[in-house]
Amino acid sequence: MSAAMATLRNTLGEDAFILSSRATSEGGIELTAALDPELPAEDERIKSSPAVKTVPKKTFQDWHGLDLSSFSDDGSELNYKKVFSENISFEALDLSVEAPPVMVCGVPGSGKTLTISRLATRLALAGIAPVVMTTDTERSGALEQLAACTRILGLDLIAVESSKMLENLCRVKRGKMPVLIDTGAVVPFDEKGMKILAGLQEAAEASLILVHPAGEDPFETEETVSWFHKNGASKMIVSRTDCARRLGGVVRGAMAGMSLAEASTGSQLIGGLRTLDPSRLNELMMSKWETASTISSDGPQKKLAQSVVPIVSRRAANSDSNLLKTNVSTVTGAAALMRHIAAQGGV
Description:
It is built from twelve helices and ten strands. The protein has helices at residues 2-12, 42-48, 60-64, 80-87, 112-125, 142-153, 163-173, 191-204, 218-230, 248-255, 278-292, 334-343, and strands at 17-23, 29-34, 102-105, 131-134, 157-159, 179-182, 207-213, 235-239, 259-264, 273-275. The radius of gyration is 31 Å and the shape is elongated. The chain is 37% helix and 14% strand. The longest helix is centred in the last third of the chain and has 15 residues, at 278-292.
């Protein structure tokens, strides 16, 4: 064997490596060997390589669709936290018993009903029982979704059919417990729809809160938010921040006069909203911008795992009032909401 290897080295050189060996019938050794292909010199490889095109990273403002150049006198990098602090109003929601009723509004699909469910869950877990009302009695699934949540929490859900009914209900409940009111979707440029919303707000003497999703066109968002602000909305809850990568529209809308209150943190009911302030807004937007440089436009490919959650028993709604209560026996999405709350600790 040693003689065969010496012959191999003399023939192919020191870089040869043996692939296999076998004994021959004549008593000798047969080796199968190979050599790595010769590579061109390093400088030659660099010259022959195709040019790699790089896409320059967008600036913070370009990524979010903002133009804040007017806030920089010398063109230096802005302190965005300071800009937000000086030019945007941040105002927390008042969910106390003494506060005016909280009425949410927004465009279709903005997350109004989920927001009411989250606020009701927050209060219930704090030991406070709000009354939940909805004027959205025509849209399929809206009432059922709220009914599923309030039933688990043991809260009253009242379906309101008219402004007069809403006025009477709020007069009875105000000052005794927090009042949360869901409304039907409205397009801000629909004069009739906005007039109906204004009538509901006036009847309830409510604080009108806009729920609007992040990630939409900055100019469109600014215009929509401004219309709601002109029609009585004083604060905004930003929804779907976990699904969006750009928040320029939120900033533009807030700079148009709308106070920022909270933002969604995910799809969960418990802890699904977080109070906004200049620091948190800056952190959120910075993280979106920085992440954008490391994730492809197609997004990360992750396999979603199915979660296993326990079953939660249902509790009946309170019955100490003669007011109309809606408690649907079988509801669409009830099981999903029950599992969701159960997975996060239950109530």
